[in-house]
Every structure is written in C-alpha cells, then in structure tokens.
Design brief:
By secondary structure, this protein is mainly α. It contains 17 helices and 2 strands.
Length: 323
C-alpha cells in the first residue's frame, strides 16, 4: 500500500468506520482480523508503500495471521486485491448495492409495508429489538422478508430462528441461512412444528449420551456414529429400551462396532418388531431354532443315511424360520 501525509496534522485527523461494519461484519471476525482491517482502513487514507512484514511488527501479529486476515476480508468482499496491494471497499456503497440490486429491491420500510400482515411487521421489529438492540442493518430486513416467503415460516418461528443463532453467538447470515435450511428440511413452519422438532432433537441427544455411556466411550461420537443413532431413533422410531437390548448383546464381543449394532437393530426393524417384548420373543425364537438346529446336526452325524440327511435338512434356516 502507498502512504503519504494527510493535509491535516495526525492529531486532528480521523478514520471513519461505517456503522454497518459493526452490525454486519465485526461479530463474525476474530479479534486479530478486526485489528488488521481497522489498521488497513487507517492506512488507506495515505499513499505510501507498506509491507506485510512492517504491518506484522506494527500490530504485533505474525506474518501468517496478517495473510490470513487479508484473505478473510477479501473473501468478505471488504478488500479487493490488486497487483500492488488492496482497495478498501466502501461499505456504505456495498450495502446500498445489496439493497437496490434487482433481487433485493426492498428498503426496511418497504419490507415492513410489504409484509403479509401486521404480525409479520411486529416480528421483524421484535428481531431488531431483541437480537440487534434496535440497530439491525437494513439488509437484514430484506433477508427476513425473503425467508418468510421462501420457507413459509410463521412469525414465531422466524423470531425463534434469530434467537437460536443469537444464543450460540452466531448471528451472521451464513449461519442463520444454514439453520433456516435445516428447519425447512424438517418441515417446520409453525411453532408447534418447531416444538416437536426440539423434542425429537432433545430425545436424540439424550439417547446419544446414553449409548456413549453404556459403551464406555469417553470420546465424542463421530458423525457416522451419530448418523446410525439418528436412523434408529428418527427413522425406526425406536426408544432406548430397544436399543439397549442391542447394546447388551455387545458384551460377548471383544470389539463391538456401530456397524454390528446397526445390523442387529436394522434386522429387527425389517421384521417389524416394535416393542422390547417383540424383540425379546424374536431373539428367544432364534435361540430355540439355533439350539434345535445344532441338535439335529449332531443327530444326523450319527446316522449312516447321508442322502436322507442331505435331502431333508439342507435348508434348516428356512425350516425353522417358518415355525
């Protein structure tokens, strides 16, 4: 970057940062990245060369951190890379272009006035006051208005969406969009849907903890292991009382795996076993069949009628499965 002295004495000069930086970008970035951006915004008023090494020394940050920060702000479209440096994007102009682009042509007032009813307008204002302290960026009005139409959320669900993200200190567009997509895929539209979804998630989380504890796992479950449990609970509608039957059968295994558990539980689901009693009766039946099969095999070994044995008992599994 190039630097030159301003006409004003440094004591009387100032660096202006638009409020939109604080409402839209600051909460997503790390402290070091913010430090780099503010310093660059300060340097952008001048016109002298500055090297990353010099910036590293001035800010007491590593060379790598400076590079990562520059790449981050470039990705956020706050910096435009050139051959000999960067252009600092005018944030106010950037937000204005977002507001008046062909796809997002609403102003905050228009978004409110275009709301289907007064409840939607109140919901947007509730989000503004409770999640943004009344300082919500104008572009959020457009996003909320569009998400209402895209996802079909009612007002309470939209408010819950923003509070959910706020509680996780992740109130930025990408995260809100990701959560909204997940809720939409789970057919959430009204607060009853959301309440049922929360109940299912709570149940799933509890069963995950119980499975980990009973298997003696001290690590976190992997994504694939959690996928197995979700399949048992959500797709098969099994409770812990059935899953625990499968867990007990791992005691005879030196190194039981989730694949083994999944094979057992999927087999029960395929046989339409819905209750612990159904499963226990099925297992008892298999136990009896196995015992009878071994007895028959032992008996046939002691007979000289090999051909008779082969003709009669060559499909014992099918024979006892039909009993």
């Amino acid at each position: 970057m190039k630097l030159e002295h301003n006409d004003k004495n440094l004591l009387f000069s100032e660096t202006k940062i638009p409020d939109v930086f604080f409402t839209e970008y600051m909460n997503q970035a790390s402290g070091d990245y913010i430090k780099v951006y503010l310093y660059i915004a300060f340097l952008a008023k001048y016109n002298k060369e500055i090297k990353i090494n010099d910036m590293s020394k001035s800010l007491n940050l590593s060379f790598k951190t400076i590079q990562e920060a520059l790449a981050y702000w470039e990705g956020q479209e706050l910096l435009i890379k050139k051959n000999n440096g960067y252009i600092v994007v005018d944030l106010q102009e950037k937000e204005l272009n977002k507001l008046y682009s062909p796809k997002l042509s609403s102003s905050p007032e228009k978004a409110l006035s275009n709301a289907k009813n007064q409840y939607r307008a109140k919901a947007i204002e509730e989000i503004n006051n409770s999640c943004f302290q009344g300082m919500m960026s104008p572009s959020w009005y457009n996003d909320i208005d569009l998400w209402f139409n895209k996802y079909g959320f009612d007002e309470q669900v939209m408010i819950a969406l923003f509070r959910y993200c706020l509680d996780r200190s992740a109130l930025h567009r990408n995260y809100v969009q990701t959560v909204a997509d997940a809720w939409h895929k789970n057919h959430i539209q009204n607060f009853t849907d959301l309440d049922n979804y929360y109940a299912k998630q709570e149940k799933l989380s509890l069963i995950e903890k119980q499975v980990s504890k009973k298997l003696g796992l001290t690590r976190r479950l992997t994504e694939y292991e959690r996928g197995y449990i979700k399949n048992w609970v959500v797709d098969y509608s099994y409770n812990m009382d059935i899953i625990e039957i499968a867990l007990k059968k791992t005691t005879s295994k030196s190194n039981p795996t989730f694949e083994y558990l999944n094979t057992l539980i999927s087999n029960w689901h395929e046989h339409n076993l819905r209750t612990p009693s159904d499963v226990n009766n099925y297992l008892e039946q298999i136990k009896v069949q196995t015992k009878n099969k071994k007895a028959l095999e032992k008996q046939t070994k002691n007979t000289n009628y090999k051909s008779f044995e082969q003709r009669t008992y060559n499909d014992l599994d099918s024979l006892y499965a039909n009993n």
